[in-house]
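Q: Hi! First time doing this. I have a protein sequence and I read that you can turn it into a structure. Is that right? Here it is:
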Amino acid sequence: MTVTSASKHSPALPHLLMFAGVLPFLAGAVLLLAGVSSLPVLGLTSSAVASYGLVIVIFLTGIHWGQQLSLGKAASGLFIFSNVIAVMVWLAWLLIPQRYFLVFLVLPFTAILAVDRKLMNTGVLARAYLRSRAAITLLVIFCLLVTASLS
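A: Yes, that's right. Below is the predicted 3D structure, encoded as structure tokens:
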């Protein structure tokens, strides 16, 4: 079954998965607010949130790569954009202190949302999808900033 046919049979699935994806960010911020700075097996709470942020940004850039592959010129520039963002985030992960990396993640999350808005304006993405993405992105950014401030 393709992603397209899965979405037709369960239009809520992408939205549910997006909201589920915010849970580690939310849990990290709440745990830090509660004074839990370390987690069994995972280590430092802020490190778990930072590494999850890295994974999610790379995942989102992969979505853009796939959109470019399937849409061609309708989504032009996504090959380069997704690679630039992925490499930039990886280098930031390697080069800047974790607390600043958490704040830095605001930039790629915002840039990816801006590209999704452009894709919605060109008819590639549905308005409902973008609304969910925007709400999730705002919540993720809030959680990242809370996590950074408590790290």
